[in-house]
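EI: anyone free to look at a 480-residue chain?
SC: sure, send it
EI:
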Amino acid sequence: MSSPAPPSSGRSLPSLLSAYSVKLNRAYLLAPAVAAGLLAAVLLFSLVDFSAFSAAPVAREALPLPPVSRSPANASALRPPPPPPHAPVHTALDTLGSRPPEQFTALRDAYARWDAAVGCPAFAEKHRSWSPDPAALQDPEAAPCGELRLPHVALAVRGVTWVPDILDGLYQCRCGMTCLWSRNEEALADTPDVVLYEIWPPPDTVSTRHHLAAAMAAPRLVTCNLLWSWVQRKQGEPLRAFMDIEPTRKRSGHEDIFIGYHADDDVQVTYAGKFFRITHNYHVATHKRDDVLVYWSSSRCFEHRNKIARELFRHLPAHSFGRCENNVGGGDKALEFYPDCGDRSSSEWWDHLHCAMSHYKFVLAIENTIADSYATEKLYYALEAGSVPIYFGAPNGRDLAPPGSYIDGAAFASVEELAAYVRKVAGDPVAYAEFHAWRRCGVMGGYGRNRLASLDTLPCRLCERASRMGGRHAPNATVS
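SC: here you go
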């Protein structure tokens, strides 16, 4: 009689036991030995974790968790778990209008209700699959370290107006490179590799005009190559960097490195950094006004901006500070309206605009010019003040701002439609709180790279560009 075949690993434990029972009936003389083997097999199978061979995962008992308080202060702990991956996610703004309108002023209460109704996991999942257009912002980490030619670059700051002195200093940059940024060429940056001009182009502009006048007086004596050599730097002289981040940005024709707000420029500088506004009062109110919904302040009275403001203010209660469409009795009313702003060292309204706008649920933000990637402090002031911008500006603002952080004014067919939407949000604490979820949940989208491409990081990024070119040792430009 042949011995029984070894059990297959794919058969279940009950079927294996049944097969062995048949063999035992036929070979009862071997009962003691077979019984011992059967007992050993049962013990062996009891030690095997069959979940490793199963196609479906086996649920395991969860580790005990500490008890969760059911008090309102811990409402965020009660938020629902995140939805399954790739499932449609509906958050508070998707259901705007389904909740009865109500007045509210306290931000923390609105946040607690949003935590319980939506929560950060759902918000993060909703925006997980979306990524900003990489063409909108330069990647400061993209250049290989092997392209750097100088381990240290000295940069002299000349001809600037609003670039703050606080940027001066020695920086430790990527790839082990260091960068000295200084306005003092006598004691500190005495042998610069690159010089920076911000409002005035490099000084060769003046000499160029002189040479062009001479060329026109004696055109036969001057060639195109000679004219070019007059305006280009020579090897051994520092590279010339020119920064123009106005909407009409334009190269001067005499710089080696051009700095603008667009990703197509040699070095990009955005308005999203902190160094554009280091002297303002950053006190932020904890409660929002419910009687006046919109804040606006402007002192450059462009008609297209004034028209938008006038139309919107016909449908929404608003306060307008500054010189344009002022309806608060003057431009110096911020401290009178809001004594909690506290700092009276300056009576200028713009030194307190962060504090003033933080008292309003919405801030009207209208750019001087509408252009791709041209998003200025008008957008970022409102975000940092804890308000929701009603934004008219860069068409690709979604690539620059945090996800779900602002209302795109241009997306509405009319001012009336926009105003109706703002009123709905203003009367729904759960929906309003969702405009702040990016900050509370740490969901930055393109805003993270936007900050990395701002003035805050310009010293290292400009020095890296100069290092890749060779600094003052770079060859002089030639005509192709």
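EI: The chain has two domains: 91-137+280-445, 145-269+456-473.
SC: 👍
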